[in-house]
Amino acid sequence: MAFFHLSRTNYRGATSLLESGIGYLRAFTPECMGVDVQKLVEGSIRAYAELRDLGRERMAEFDQELIPMISFVS
Q1: Cα(14)–Cα(36) distance, integer angstroms
Q2: How far apart are CA 35 and CA 69, in angstroms?
Q3: For the chain, which residues make up each domain, given as ranges?
Q4: pLDDT attached to residue 50
Q5: CA torsion 13→15→19→22, rounded to 10°?
Q6: Could you tell me the pTM of the whole model?
Q7: What is the Cα–Cα distance from 74 to 69, expressed in whole angstroms?
Q8: Angle, nearest 10°, between helix axes 11-26 and 37-54?
Q9: Are 6 and 59 spatial neighbours (Cβ–Cβ below 8 Å)?
């Protein structure tokens, strides 16, 4: 949902949901049900940091490549 808020230029919603989502996911690291949760948390932290660095005024410059993808462990 955080990245949906980002796509709608809702800075507060995006940063708030990224922050809380990272907190929730940490409880399931390093993996859960075949999902590499650690990788997802690390990617989310990078995206959150970039968004915070850009701020509300420059959020349109956010690099979409930073949106983390769900990876499965083998």
Answers
A1: 22
A2: 11
A3: 2-56
A4: 98
A5: 90
A6: 0.94
A7: 16
A8: 150
A9: yes
Identify the helix (H) or strand (E) that includes residue 32.
strand 31-32
10 Å CB burial of residue 63 (0-12, 13-18, 19+) is: exposed
Determine the straight-line distance between the first and last CA of the chain, rounded to whole angstroms. Answer: 27
User: What DSSP character marks residue 66?
Assistant: G
DSSP for 33-54, written as a single string? TTEEHHHHHHHHHHHHHHHHHH
Residue pair 43/21 in contact by the 8 Å Cβ criterion: no
Residue appearing with tokens 């049900």: 33
Q: Is 3 helix (H, G, I), strand (E, B) or coil?
A: helix
Tens-level pLDDT at each residue, the chain (74 residues): 999 999 999 999 999 999 999 999 999 999 999 999 999 999 999 999 999 999 999 999 999 999 999 999 98
